[in-house]
Write a structure and sequence with these properties.
Four Helix Bundle (Hemerythrin (Met), subunit A), mainly alpha
């Protein structure tokens, strides 16, 4: 029997993504993209386990499979969390600010909500780096029959990393506590630099095998 994708669920997400609704947006899409990259990594691992040719690597691949299962759940949690932190942030823009007291209270609430909205994409980036580390091993020790899927997975995770960082920047730009904003930006910058270097290296190694 032919196995088909859960089209209704995919179309439901895409319909929401393409609507006027502010969520899901780029942050949620980034997390889902990373989850797809994760799924490809799990597929490579499952195609490697049980094969005589890769017997020596099997314990390590089994361990990575367990880590990827945890990461998959984390990516899906973060996709939901990204939508959840948006509502209070959007509402805080409408808080009254007619008096100094009201303005101070609004600034306090906005700063709190901006930080919460920044920490979710930061976490997506952290988990994406972890996923790239796993894909790097799979590119070296996983089944050669599925090496192209490592490359595709890398590109999904790379896109998630670069998508999430834009949600960091858009929120830190509005933060009044500039020291904290700059610290978050610097941390995000370091993950982008490290992650893209690694992703590009893995992808090139995959291409070298395929060609």
């Amino acid at each position: 029997m032919e196995q088909k994708i859960g089209q209704d669920k995919v179309e439901d997400f895409l319909e929401k993504l393409s609507s006027k609704a502010p969520v899901p947006g780029g942050g949620g899409a980034s997390a889902v993209g990373a989850a797809i990259g994760n799924g490809l990594g799990q597929m490579v691992a499952n195609l490697t386990i049980g094969k005589k040719k890769y017997k020596d690597a099997e314990p390590e691949i089994q361990e990575l499979l367990g880590k990827m299962e945890v990461l998959k759940k984390e990516f899906m949690r973060l996709a939901d969390a990204d939508a959840e932190v948006f509502a209070p942030l959007a509402a805080s823009y409408s808080l009254p600010s007619g008096t100094e007291e009201e303005k101070a209270k609004k600034d306090e609430i906005m700063e709190k909500n901006l930080l919460a909205a920044t920490l979710i994409p930061i976490e997506i980036m952290e988990k994406s780096i972890q996923m790239l580390d796993i894909l790097e091993v799979l590119g070296k020790k996983g089944s050669r029959m599925a090496i192209s899927d490592v490359g595709v997975g890398v590109q999904f995770v790379r896109a998630a990393l670069l998508g999430a960082v834009m949600n960091v920047y858009i929120n830190t730009k509005s933060m009044k506590v500039r020291k904290k904003a700059e610290e978050l930006n610097a941390y995000a910058d370091s993950m982008v630099a490290r992650g893209t270097r690694k992703a590009d290296r893995i992808y090139q190694e995959v291409l070298d095998v395929l060609r």
